Amino acid sequence: MTTKRLIECVPNFSEGNDMNIINQITREIESVEGVRLIDVDPGKATNRTVVTMVGTPNEVCEAAFRAVKKAAELIDMSKHKGAHPRFGATDVCPLVPVANITMEETVEYARKLAKRIGEELKIGVYCYEFAAFEEKRRNLANCREGEYEALPKRLKDPAWKPDFGPAEFNPKSGVTAVGARNFLVAYNINLNTTSTRRANAVAFDIREKGRPQRIGNPITGKIAVDDKGNEIWIPGSLKACKAIGWFIDEYGIAQISINLTDITVTPVHVAFEEVCKKAQERGLRVTGSELVGVIPLQAMLDAGRYFLRKQSRSTGISDAEIIKIAVKSLGLDELYTFDPKKKIIEYILEDDKKKQLVDMSLKGFIEETASESPAPGGGSVSAAMGAMGVALGTMVANLSSHKAGWDDRWEEFSEWAEKGKAYQDQLVKLIDEDTNAFNRIMDAFGLPKSTDEEKAIRKQAIHEATLYAIEVPFKVMQLCYQCMEVMKAMAEIGNPNSVSDAGVGVLAARSGVMGAFLNVKINAAGLEDKTLVSDYIKGGEELVEKANLLEKEILDMVNGKIVI
After folding, report:
1. Which of residues 296 and 80 earns the better pLDDT score?
2. Helix (H) or strand (E) segment spanning residue 244
3. What is the rounded distance in angstroms from the CA atom of residue 77 to the CA atom of residue 90?
4. 97 and 38 in one domain?
5. C-alpha to C-alpha distance for 400 and 413, rounded to whole angstroms
6. Contact 91, 14 (CB under 8 A)
7. Using CA of residue 189, residue 343, residue 25, residue 180, what is the dihedral sign?
8. Which of 322, 350, 378 is the last residue in one of the domains?
9. In a domain, 431, yes or no
10. CA–CA separation, 485 and 505 (whole Å)
11. What is the pLDDT of residues 401-416, one digit of tens each?
12. Same domain (yes/no): 29, 84
């Protein structure tokens, strides 16, 4: 897992048709080292492009500034038409904390970026969401009220003076909103209608803001007001949800365009299901959906598991299979192919990583192990044995959840499968981590040792690297032993036709314990702190003893159920 501070930036530019302009803007982002351009999503009907980049904070802010500057040069807002609300060439530019950075820190970066845009580019900037200086500007809709066309009058109002930059109308560039927010998912749901009005009706049903209460006719009646003259609104059914209906000429359908501003409050699958319900009540049908930009892996896994549970199916399957269920259930491939490697943020960032052992084919891993290189070695193989062993236990759980006549037990076996998959995922990570630990020792021994200071630094580095090279296989031992609970449960209650697989699984896991302990011992021999050495050896011996006893118990059960 990365220890870098990472933020995401999702600027929206008011150009969705001219790829020459869009490409010039995105080239500015790609010119900054330390920033990854991960998605460019132009929309013809909206005449708007959503760009997503991720990187270290200062570098992302630099890339964002360059992109805003280029957009101001190339986009003329006085000629802009589009279905989406907008008030500037760079309409919005939010920063989003991704890793090892707080929202408070992200706010500071957003305000610094806003100040620079205002001062250097002479563009008025409103700070919104968490970066807002006052409550009324927290909501982007308030800042953008009346859109570009309202700016000449609005900028003269002291109450709406920009936070940074001139309070003067810039007809070419308009103004920009810079914010700091939680991860927002832009998500469109497709309907079997061409009616914008009917799509809007569903949007008003679900969005948090809802619709105004009317007197008499619910559509044309006068808007009701309270004793103080304030309009009365009927809230929609979903929190942290903004939505409007529109017609997309490109696809010939109406959509409900949704911004889910906090997917921990309203996840994607909840929004989809609620739209299905509200659309059906109005005689409409959802045909699919569309993801604009990118989405966190967890959101897709949550969606896939939700639909699997609806089908009374086990959720303890691979992430790839869970995502496939999510894509099919949400209809994310109706309009065009949904590619997880291009739409899920964690998968996009993986492209930058050095290929690891676990990315190899099984044949490649075996051949790499057999080569003259000392790594991967016994520690990586021990982790692999444990992972394969618990994978067998997980398989038995999944098969048991599908066994005819056991339909009422699917959830019981699903829980065991999820538990097995969690062990499997941790052990898979340790396959490469054991090799990384070995490389750390080699690097430490390669440090210079000419001066006393260098010798002290080298000695400390060797100590820390050796300790880590003990901790990793010890963790493998613990996980291999703990995961045997899955095989035990499957030997006791699982599908009897697969009981031998539970037996093979426990043999592999127990071998993982034994193999990893050999690595603990050989690495502990190089540790000067003999108290620590004693603790690890004692702990390892206890795990070996318990693993041997549990293996015998499970194999006795397995053999007792195999009738020859």
Report:
1. 80
2. strand 241-248
3. 10
4. yes
5. 6
6. yes
7. positive
8. 350
9. yes
10. 11
11. 989 999 999 999 999 9
12. yes
Same domain, 416 and 528: yes
Alpha helix locations (H) across 494-529?
A: 499-524
Helices (H), 50-159: 57-74, 103-121, 140-143, 151-154
What's the rounded Cα separation, in Å, for the pair 5 and 99?
5
The pLDDT tens digits of the residues spanning 129-165 come to 999 999 999 999 999 999 999 999 999 999 999 999 9
| Domain CATH number, residue 537 | 1.20.120.680
Q: Cβ(252)–Cβ(153) under 8 Å?
A: no
Locate 324 and state its tokens: 């496939």
For residue 190, give the H/E element and its range: strand 185-191
Residue with tokens 């690890």: 536
Tokens of 206: 């679900």
Contact 256, 202 (CB under 8 A): yes
Residue type, 80: H
In a domain, 1, yes or no: no
- Domain-terminating residue out of 163, 180, 197: 180
Check whether residue 407 and residue 467 sit in a common domain: yes
pLDDT (0 to 100) of residue 196: 95
- 151 and 100 together in one domain: yes
Q: What is the pLDDT of residue 184?
A: 85
Q: How far apart are CA 246 and CA 196, in angstroms?
A: 5
CATH code for the domain of 94: 3.30.990.10
Instruction: Compute the distance between CA of residue 130 and CA of residue 386 in angstroms, rounded to an integer.
Output: 45
Expressed as residue numbers, the domain containing 85 is: 6-180
402 is written with which tokens? 């599908």
| Confidence band, pLDDT 50/70/90 cuts, at residue 1 | very low
Q: Is residue 438 part of a domain?
A: yes
- Written as six digits, the tokens of 27 are 């080239």
Per-residue burial over 55-76, b if 16 or more Cβ lie within 10 Å, else e, is bbbebbbbbbbbbbbbbbebbe
Same domain, 16 and 72: yes
Q: From edge to edge, which strands make up the β-sheet containing 286-292? A: 241-248, 253-260, 185-191, 286-292
Is 441 part of a structural domain of the chain?
A: yes
**Per-residue DSSP letter, 210:** -
- Are 250 and 171 found together in one domain? no
Q: In the chain, how many domains are there?
A: 3
Rounded Cα distance, 204 and 371, in Å:
64
Looking up tokens 């739409």 gives: 343
What pLDDT, on a 0 to 100 scale, did the predictor assign at position 379? 93
Phi, psi of 271 (to 5 degrees): -60, -45
**Whether 176 and 37 share a structural domain:** yes
What does pLDDT average to over the chain? 93
d(C-alpha 474, C-alpha 162), whole Å:
58
Known catalytic residues are 84, 434
- In angstroms, the Cα distances linking 462 to 83, 193, 436, 520, 521 are 62, 68, 14, 16, 17
Q: How many helices (H) and strands (E) does the chain have?
A: 17, 15
Q: Is 564 exposed, middle or buried (0-12, 13-18, 19+ CB in 10 A)?
A: exposed
Q: What is the band of 352 on the pLDDT scale with cuts at 50, 70, 90? A: low
- CATH code of 224's domain: 3.30.70.670
Q: How far apart, in whole angstroms, are the C-alpha atoms of residue 421 and residue 394?
A: 7
